[in-house]
Design a protein that fits this description.
Elements (H helix, E strand, L loop, with lengths): L8 H6 L10 E2 L8 E7 L5 E8 L5 E3 L5 E2 L3 E2 L2 E7 L5 E10 L2 H13 L5 H13 L3 E5 L10 E2 L31 H8 L6 E6 L2 E5 L4 E5 L4 E8 L1 E4 L2 E4 L3 E4 L17 E5 L5 E11 L2 E6 L4 H14 L11 H16 L4 H6 L1 H4 E7 L2 E4 H14 L2 E11 L8 E15 L4 E15 L4 H5 L8 E12 L10
Parallel strand pairs: 10-19, 21-26
Antiparallel strand pairs: 1-14, 2-3, 2-7, 3-4, 4-9, 5-6, 7-8, 8-9, 11-14, 11-18, 12-13, 14-17, 15-16, 17-20, 18-19, 19-20, 21-22, 23-24, 24-25, 25-26
Helix pairs in contact: 2-3
Length: 475
């Protein structure tokens, strides 16, 4: 499938046209708190609105055309708005912006030639600009958000690293440890590239007339939509494919859910094990498709921004939320149990996303293979499953320590087998032991981080309902 592009798309943003939102589902459950709105002001007083993404360590990223304007330069103010784990709203600005040097030349060439060259040449120029259309923003204050965004470095091939005595205790991983892009490993993670699902998220206005892209009004609310990834785009004889650029087409309703101006919003792709990986930023497109710049294509820029971020991290103010550990632990458990309320295939695929290779289940050490077989048995026996966290409490004193956190929860559950009409339901007390901590951006950018959270142990005790059922592994 070939995507055609509207040549005025990006110019509309830089001329302060109102930003438009992803046409999709309102994020009413706050599933994506790490996607934040940006308010941008230039030296000529032009104002733009964009979306951005915050890493687990607090680095902000967006599209380059959101923070640079032809003839003006970098924005004089990038205001980053977010809500912390205590429910408090914060606003901070940029300390430093990292942007590909090639973006200025690529954008200038596209803008200067767009009314002088052929349609095909204009599309080619636009795609060359899109390849460079990303930026990293080191904030002036520490940003701490909820949620667990999986970043693109998880799609890189890790290396066995022999660390010298001089490297022990360093904040920066030695270069020999840096994960690298490997096409075979990427395909192994994503599977058939023609069947990969993508997710787009953004803030801004909402257009009610999608065909003409008119009748737009601002509501400033976050939306998300799922659609199909397009692994390869052809313009004339030139091929643009992932991981240099991430393009998407239409959704199930035959609509491009990414509207003009929803720039800088993150794009995720789904791996075979159920992770949604953040790979790039919405750049531009039209009514039949959209393309996003790529984190993997700009690893060195990302690592430069991470090194600077780490260097100044002790100089910037941090306002850690008191409920961060508790909320993060609860969010992880809700997401894990939520995955078990889905279709059997999805439930099984996402096991690696939430559990460590070795998990203590009801005081029995289970390696992942045995754990997977037991969970598969549950799925096969009960095709319909619903789990809901009723209450949760982090273990006293654990909220101030890194690594191991124990979350005590009460979970309502219901099972059904439509083949036999059998149903069971009840409530259980469940203790989850969770491994996670506040991360270092360098370890994320270098692909050496193993710190995304995992459930290391869980213990179920039924307190009402059918006492013969023990979850998530039946006896």
């Amino acid at each position: 499938m070939q995507i055609r592009f509207v040549i005025s798309l990006v110019a509309a943003i830089l001329n302060s046209a109102p930003a438009l939102a992803v046409v999709g589902t309102l994020d009413s459950k706050d599933e994506f708190p790490f996607v934040v709105p940006l308010s941008v002001q230039f030296a000529d007083n032009a104002i733009a609105s964009c979306s951005g993404a915050v890493s687990r360590a607090g680095l902000v990223s967006t599209a380059a055309h959101c923070i640079w304007k032809k003839g003006v330069g970098l924005a004089k103010l990038v205001q980053i708005n977010y809500r912390d784990a205590d429910g408090k709203y914060h606003s901070t600005k940029q300390r430093r912006i990292f942007m590909p040097r090639a973006f200025v030349d690529a954008y200038t060439k596209w803008d200067d030639e767009r009314e002088k060259v052929s349609v095909e040449k204009n599309r080619l120029n636009f795609m060359e600009m899109t390849l460079q259309d990303l930026a990293f923003i080191v904030p002036d204050e520490g940003i701490e958000i909820e949620g667990f965004p999986h970043w693109a470095s998880e799609l890189l091939q890790t290396k066995t690293c022999f660390v010298s005595a001089d490297d022990v205790g360093r904040d920066s991983p030695p270069p020999s440890c840096a994960a690298r892009y490997d096409a075979g490993y990427l395909k192994q993670q994503l599977g058939d590239l023609n069947n990969v699902r993508a997710l787009v998220i953004g803030y801004g206005d909402f257009c009610t007339d999608l065909t003409k892209r008119e009748k737009c009004s601002g509501d400033g609310r976050r939306r998300f939509a799922e659609l199909k990834l397009i692994p390869t785009v052809m313009i004339g004889s030139k091929t643009f494919d992932l991981p240099k650029v991430w393009c998407t087409g239409l959704n199930a309703q035959q609509i491009n859910p990414v509207q003009p101006g929803d720039s800088g919003g993150p794009r995720f792709v789904r791996t075979q094990d159920g992770r949604w990986i953040f790979v790039g930023y919405t750049s531009g497109g039209d009514d039949v498709g959209e393309c996003a710049s790529s984190l993997i294509y700009h690893l060195e820029l990302w690592r430069s921004a991470a090194e600077y971020f780490q260097k100044v991290s002790r100089q910037i103010k941090h306002y850690p939320a008191e409920r961060w550990y508790s909320n993060q632990a609860t969010r992880l458990v809700r997401e894990a149990l939520g995955s078990w309320s889905g279709p059997p295939e999805d439930a099984l695929a996402q096991l690696k996303t939430y559990y460590r290779a070795s998990t203590d289940f009801d005081e029995r050490d289970e390696n992942f293979e045995r754990f997977y077989r037991a969970k598969k048995q549950l799925v096969q026996e009960w095709p319909i499953r619903h789990f809901r966290v009723v209450s949760s409490k982090l273990a006293e004193g654990d909220g101030d320590s890194d690594l191991v956190n124990i979350l005590y929860t009460e979970v309502e559950w219901a099972l059904a087998d439509p083949r036999t009409g059998t149903k069971k339901k009840g409530t259980s007390k469940v203790d989850f032991t969770i491994y996670f901590y506040r991360e270092n951006e360098l370890h994320i950018a270098y692909g050496t981080s193993q710190a995304w959270p995992r459930i290391t142990a869980e213990r179920w005790q039924n307190i009402s309902g059918d006492k013969s059922v023990t979850f998530p592994v039946p006896k």
